[in-house]
Design a protein that fits this description.
Blueprint lengths: L5 H18 L19 H16 L4 H14 L13 H13 L18 H6 L4 H12 L6 H18 L4 H5 L9 H4 L12 H14 L4 H8 L4 H15 L6 H6 L3 H12 L2
Length: about 270
């Protein structure tokens, strides 16, 4: 696949940041004509920016380098919207503490959770010219915190969908991408007419994001559908819909009220060079 359009690349990252900012004020109605109540994005965007920098500087996936950068975010607020780590998912925190003790970046505990859905975009963009490389890089980047098969495969499925969206596929193709034969049943069923998530958080959140994407005609409309399902569903939706609609289709008042937009622009630029 040729390199994605720059508008789609920036849209993928900005969509994530905007959806995380919307999730911070979940009690407010989604209003595409008004600035975001809080322009601060959350942990998923911070982790994605850290991973984007790692991919670009290492020339690919380096799990130890990724963990070092996540630790810098946790300890010092690196790549955050407020220059502090205001919130960190407990599974991610445990992975960072384990890494600081052992220097081992792998999650041998097969951790489950949905925070991993919020940092799929970097691998999907950096390796956009190869679906196989996207899926491999996504898996390697997710295993450092969430190696549980349902969480891991939900992220691989999201990566496959973002890959199709970046390539300009129609929505039907995006929601039914070519997926690996070894995808677990819970993640694989999300591409069917009767998804069965098995109660796994990552699969449930991704199912909600897919439903919002399928049932809406604009980025903002999908946000309204997805918001009640929580911040991880919103993070998955923001990456997917942002990649499909593009940066320009995200409401201007939202884009213009995001904190530290230069970090998003820089990440989009370095990932595009991959």
């Amino acid at each position: 696949m040729p390199k994605p359009d720059a508008d789609k690349i920036l849209g993928c990252l900005t969509g994530l940041a905007a959806c995380e900012a919307l999730s911070r004020s979940a009690d407010s109605p989604v209003n595409p004509g008004a600035p975001l109540e809080s322009g601060l994005w959350a942990d998923g965007t911070s982790m994605s920016l850290s991973l984007a920098e790692s991919l670009a500087e290492c020339g690919g996936v380096n799990e130890r380098d990724q963990m070092i950068r996540l630790a810098s975010w946790f300890r010092y607020g690196y790549q955050s919207s407020s220059e502090t780590c205001e919130y960190i998912d407990e599974a991610v925190k445990a992975a960072i503490l384990r890494f600081e003790r052992t220097w081992d970046p792998q999650d041998d505990a097969l951790t489950q959770g949905d925070a991993c859905l919020a940092r799929v975009a970097p691998a999907a963009i950096y390796f956009a010219d190869s679906r196989e490389d996207v899926l491999d890089a996504c898996a390697r980047s997710i295993r450092i915190t969430h190696a549980g098969p349902q969480s891991l495969d939900a992220c691989r499925l999201l990566a496959a969908m973002i890959h199709e969206a970046l390539g300009g596929a129609d929505k039907a193709r995006v929601l039914r991408p070519e997926v690996p034969a070894d995808l677990c049943a819970e993640a694989g069923s999300l591409c069917s007419d009767a998804p069965r998530t098995g109660g796994f958080a990552a699969c449930s959140a991704l199912a909600a994001a897919m439903h919002a994407f399928a049932g809406s005609g604009s980025f903002a409309e999908g946000c309204s559908l997805c918001l009640p399902h929580g911040p991880r569903a919103m993070a998955a939706y923001g990456q997917l819909a942002g990649a499909w609609y593009g940066h320009a289709a995200i409401p201007a008042p939202w884009r213009e009220s995001l904190a530290r937009p230069e970090l998003l622009e820089k990440a989009a630029e370095i990932l595009a060079k991959g």
